[in-house]
């Protein structure tokens, strides 16, 4: 059923990769997606939690699933490099380590992951970046289009990007951005993608570690309510896609601190500054509506909070059904 180069490479049964989304995607979400046949991804961001926190979360994930899982890191030009011990922890416990590249790919990091036995994926926003990543040793690519939620690397829409990336590299390519329904998944697979990568839709899952107000805002929104902006750039100036309502609420907010977030690895609370690129995790207090409510154009496909496994099954079965109409 829907076997592709991606499912064969990573050993999952359904060509759906859940996006690693920082602390929103912790052990429960990662394991739920993998148990349903997709590839669950632990969000490790910039290495938050350190090697011990990452090892603990992956050990928790492993206790919940025996299926393949991945770990996602974000690499930014000019930021302090990710501690190698974090990568070692990830590569020794996950099947795949992924880099969201906001910098040139580092063959040394890719080699380090390979030596520990894990595969490497890179999320990129252009064919040129995809080629550089594969030349540096990446085993697969996630092509992220302009429709995507979270930080957005590409300046063009997913379909034109996907076509260029598929022509530029000869490794499995998953399509990211705006895919939250069976129809969108079928379209990406029909266009040649080896799998789809889904973010926003999984934020509205039971297992996602985000504030219920954020999940409800996604349910209430339509595709046109997602906006490409640089509003939440305090500390990291990069384009991103959020709910338009969050931009309006942050601009209208009176004060510098919008609320307080729980830090998962030491269970303390930290203030969140207005216009910081921090989403409201579970336990966040304050003006949740004025925080970075990341959402892709796929938000139109969010109708309810569902178990992540149901989302995987609904999208995969629906896409397979749609694709069969043409064969
Ligand atoms: C809440 C949220 C957080 C994200 N955080 C990350 C991240 O930490 N690393 C990463 O590679 N991509 C991250 N992304 C982007 C996703 O990898 C993916 O490209 C995007 O979600 C696809 O578009 P969609 O949201 O329409 O499904 C995030 C996306 C969202 C919605």
Structural class: alpha/beta
* Total discrete domains: 2
* Beta-strand content bin: 15-25%
The rounded Rg comes to: 18 Å
Helix fraction?
25-40%
What's the CATH topology label of the largest domain? TIM Barrel
Number of helices: 12
Could you spell the SSE succession in H and E letters? HEHEHEHEHEHEEHEHEHHEEHEEEH
Primary descriptors:
single chain; 327 residues; alpha/beta; TIM Barrel; 2 domains; 36% helix; binds flavin mononucleotide
Structure description:
The chain has about 325 residues and is an alpha/beta fold. It folds into two domains: about 5-205 and about 300-325, TIM Barrel (Alpha-Beta Barrel); about 210-300, no CATH class. The chain has twelve helices and 14 strands. The protein has an eight-stranded parallel beta sheet with strand order 1-9-8-6-5-4-3-2. A three-stranded antiparallel beta sheet has the order 7-11-10. Strands 13-12-14 form a three-stranded antiparallel beta sheet, with no helix packed on it. It binds flavin mononucleotide. Flavin mononucleotide (FMN) binds next to strand 3, strand 9 and helix 9.
Summarize the structure.
This protein has 327 residues and is of the alpha/beta class. The chain contains twelve helices and 14 strands.
Give the secondary structure arrangement, pairings included:
Layout: H1 5-10, E1 16-18, H2 27-35, E2 40-43, H3 50-64, E3 69-76, H4 84-93, E4 96-102, H5 107-115, E5 119-124, H6 127-135, E6 140-144, E7 150-151, H7 158-168, E8 173-176, H8 182-190, E9 195-198, H9 200-203, H10 212-220, E10 226-229, E11 240-243, H11 244-252, E12 257-263, E13 268-273, E14 285-286, H12 308-324
Parallel strand pairs: 1-9, 2-3, 3-4, 4-5, 5-6, 6-8, 8-9
Antiparallel strand pairs: 7-11, 10-11, 12-13, 12-14
Bound molecules: flavin mononucleotide.
Flavin mononucleotide (FMN) is lined by residues 19-22, 24, 43, 45, 72, 74, 100, 123, 144, 147-150, 176-180, 197-200, 203, 279, 294, 296, 298.
